[in-house]
Amino acid sequence: MTTDVKQKKYRMDYVAIGVSLAILAILVILTIRDPEQVVNGLLSVRDVLIYDFGWYFLLFTAVILFYNIYLAFSKYGHIRMGRAKPEYGTFGWVAMIFCAAMGLTILFWSATEWAWYTVWLTPFGMSQEETANISVAYSFFHWGFPAWSIYAAGVIPVAYRYYVRRKPGLTLQNACEGVLGNSVYGPLGTVISIIFVFGVLGGYAISYGSGIPMLTNILHNLVGTPENLVVMLLVIVAVTAVFMWSAVSGIAKGIQILSKICVVLCFVICGAFLILGHTRFQIDNTMQSFGWMTTHFFDMLFYTDPTGASGGFPQEWTVFYWAWWLGLAPVMWIFIAKCSAGRSIRAIILTVIISGMASTLLFFGTISNHALGEILLNPGFDWANLGSNGTMLDTFYNEYNEFGLISDVIKTLPLGKGVLVIWFIAAFFLFVTTMDSASYTMAASCTKGLAVGDDPYRRFRILFACLLSVTPLCLLVANSPMTGFKAVLIITSVPISLLIICCLISCQKWLREDYGDWTAADIIHFYSTYEETLDLPEDASYPGVEAPIPPEFHKRTIK
Known about the structure:
There is one protein chain. This protein has 559 residues and is mostly helical. The protein has two domains: 11-516, Up-down Bundle (Amino acid/polyamine transporter I); 519-559, no CATH class. It is 73% helix and 1% strand. A two-stranded antiparallel ribbon has the order 1-2.
């Protein structure tokens, strides 16, 4: 069990935090003073990355996906993150992964993404009507196997070094140690920390940019409160207070409990859409969309649209999504690693990818398909007269109101008002679980030499809980756009992609050093016998430590 150990004096990486905050403050001030010029400049860099180097993100994600498959089913897949039993039950573990990784973004996009595909950008040069039939399939793809493989891959290097090699430090730079050596403890390590802290603080401001307006709009539809700055600030204060409490309470008492509650609420929401909505259409189109995605998986994975026939669809959506997932991934790598003690490499990879895919099928299969059914099953709807059919899609097309569209989708249900209440509660707590896992992870990552079994100090968690709210508060008060921070997240994804390459090479190096001459049977036997033996001699070793394991536990010697 992890503890906030007081007898050990940990130090915070204040240099990385200070530099990151300084850069972020400059960016915020410039955005407030001259938003148009700053945002346009950042968007120009972002466009160069996704259009001129989009192939890099596509290739990178494909390689990551294939590497995960290899690692999970290789002999190394049997290695566990430490020889203790898992600290958290399967339901709590999966719930924390889902809530930390998805948060309220899955509620936001499952209600709106289908509309973006059918109204503006269309893949493979299709018409709007043709795209409508595969819009959910593309959501399955963008939120499916490739995306979750990005989250799964980085967990293993971080967790392996921490739990198997028993080396202190739960940070991104530590996971690069196998390639970069002792330089990770010098200026280079500080640069990596700055990239991490700056990327997280800037990137998670975007969650506020979509989450707070959505919550405010739902409140407006429920109780008639105005959608103004005062209400938004009150919502931010409420969210910050709750996730600060949760982060301070720790993983087991705070984050895990809230995550379980969120998952139950999400099941209720999806069940309500399935039962009260277009049930047959949802089931049929989910099966058809999943089949279309499976059949065209490699076409979608490597689709670059070299002639521009689709108007930049793969760049604006697929490349953007891969860069987006990658930009936010370091938080997930560290958080999931912290929660995965006792789990095998295979279990971690497959659980993250498969449970992520399952949640995608559940949310987009019910919510998106219900909304799409409202359009496609309407006998009077005409694509040629989009904007004058009197549907919620017309409202979205004419007003560009994503947040209003979410409420409109929910209110089409027979008991829409009641579902709207549950949606608000679920979105609020999903927001909380995402932010508290981020504050916990940042505190852990910036704590120098955090030992296995220890939590970062509470004051460090409180510090980051406050810092995560500062940037969006400043931008909201100044009525400045957060669009530039989306570009910042894409920009920081480039160095992060290079760091994950270092992490994976480091991990592969450690695996070969520690278990290269072991067979799968050897690894299975080694880990299975340890759980039954609680009185190992003091000279018993583990990979990375030069002490032999007694013959009664294994026939080999780890060097």
